[in-house]
Amino acid sequence: MKALRNRIIPVDQRQRNLKMQVLETERLVLRKLNQNDLKDIIACEVVSGTQSTEVEAQEFLDYCFREYCERGIGPWGIQLKETKMIVGNCGFPHINFNNLCGEVNYYIASRYRGRGLASEALKALLDFGFMDIGLIQIQARCELGNLSSERVMQKVGMRFKGLMEHTQSSKDPSPKQKLYAILAKDFNLATTGV
User: Fold this and answer.
1) What is the reported pLDDT for 53?
2) The domain containing residue 31 runs over which residues?
3) Closest Cα partner for 101 from 193, 2, 11, 192?
4) Counted domains in the chain
5) DSSP-H helix ranges across the chain
6) Which one-letter DSSP state was computed for residue 133?
7) Tell me: the pLDDT tens digits for 156-180?
8) Confidence grade of residue 9 (pLDDT, cut at 50, 70, 90)
9) Statement: residue 14 has pLDDT above 50
10) Which helix (H) or strand (E) holds 128?
């Protein structure tokens, strides 16, 4: 969740206002979160990976609302079509408009993991980034031991690029993270099966 609190700050400091759209997949609806989602966020551990308090969940929602207002885009809630439950979130915490490169992140509550929901949501996010924002490259990162997150990135066609230092705001004791990336042309090939 900490990664979602990072701001999208273009290098040239000119804020580009984006329009957040509802994204749909076979099993998911990715949409703006709203105050009615508070109960799901608390119940599904969406905030911090452990049972969230109402205060933490509300702080996360307030952050989302600020992002939607200031940038036009922020974390998408990942909603199951079948149950209408919010089971995670995903978004673009960083976009560099000068080189058209974005960074994505995603989170699925622990009890919903192992069902392919993260890769389904990530694929929709990549499609939005390449087609609607016009990015050339999208990257993601994970902790060194997070093999399930690595598999999600690999499943959507992202390739390992190397190790990178943690952000200054990170509290993780490990000094490095794994960086994965995909180019628009490679994503288009992967999705069309060519």
Assistant:
1) 81
2) 2-192
3) 11
4) 1
5) 38-43, 54-71, 117-127, 147-155, 184-192
6) I
7) 999 999 999 876 555 556 679 999 9
8) very low
9) no
10) none
